[in-house]
Amino acid sequence: MFSKIKEIFGGEAEGNGQKATKTAPASPKAESKPASTKPRIGYIHLSGCTGDGISLTENYDILATLLTDMVDIVYGQTLVDEWDMPEMDLCLIEGSVCLQDEHSVKELLKAREKSALICAFGSCAMNGCFTTYARGGQQAQPKHESFPPISSLVKVDLALPGCPVAPEMIAKAVVALINGDMDYLQPALDIAACDTACGCDLLNGVMNKALCTGCGTCGLACQTRAIEMIQGRPHIDTDRCIKCGSCYVSCPRSWLPETQIKKELNL
User: Which CATH number fits domain 199-264: 1.20.120.1630, 1.10.150.20, 3.30.70.20, 3.40.50.1820?
Assistant: First the structure.
């Protein structure tokens, strides 16, 4: 069920010039349980508010089935009693990475080595969100002052944006991974290296190019109500904006290339 994804990504984790080592085949004489065919999932929490983890648990109707019958949770101090990082098919990483936190940096690099796929889980991991603007001096660790997105240190394969990620998006993305539905996951693959992180990107990339259709999707995606639709156009309250980028990645026009639009209109 995971073969199509592994085929596309080479079946091996690539990051920092390293590849995940393959497990040697077991001896024919050895007695062992059959290997599970379920995807092996890991979860790492770096510098963030844990909102994405909470959002995961809000899938009440399918959570037990998702975590027990559909996937194997093999790593994550908050989910399993496992401290040695194993090989993983997918690792969900929440939060930006603090460059002054040696443990976080090492864990992120190790996850890239051990994972076939790395997912930036939420806007802090994807583009830094509001943690990007931390400048040090805060309690309880005043030396912690740099919080870039995880893509600044490792290759990211897919991203689930949001502050936090919508529960439905988490559930459907995991199910798509299990089924090898790459068409459904294509947007998540496309925004893996997204660096658009505030309402200003929406204004510059959509509004100022006369691409806005007034659909209001950006306002619906904004968790802090920083976007108000006035006369069919979004108006950004910069004091409320937390730089999560949800408005831009949710905008249908941000996915339609300007060159293609001009071609269709013979411009």
Answer: 3.30.70.20
Nearest Cα residue to 41 out of 2, 85, 94, 92 = 92
- Summary mean pLDDT of the chain: 81
Q: Which residues contact 120 (CB under 8 A, 6 or more apart)?
A: 93, 126, 149, 150, 151, 156, 158, 159, 160, 192
Instruction: Say if strands 18-19 and 14-15 run parallel, antiparallel, or are unpaired.
Output: antiparallel
The pLDDT score that the predictor gives to residue 17 is 38
SS3 at position 111 = helix
189 pLDDT above the threshold of 80: yes
Asked whether the bond before 164 is cis by omega within 30 degrees of 0, the reply is yes
- CB burial of residue 36 (10 Å; 0-12, 13-18, 19+): exposed
Lowest pLDDT segment from 161-170, 241-250, 255-264: 255-264
Question: Could you state, in order of their start, the residue ranges of all structural domains in the chain?
Answer: 3-14+37-190, 199-264
Higher-pLDDT residue of 143, 226? 226
Predicted confidence (pLDDT) at residue 12 exceeds the cutoff of 80: no
Would the pLDDT of 101 be above 70? yes
Residue 228: other Cβ atoms inside 10 A: 13
Instruction: Report phi then psi at 159, rounded to 5.
Output: -140, 145
> Which residue, among 29, 12, 30, has the nearest Cα to 21 in the 3D structure?
12
Contact present, 164 and 54 (Cβ < 8 Å): yes
Mean pLDDT of 121-141: 82
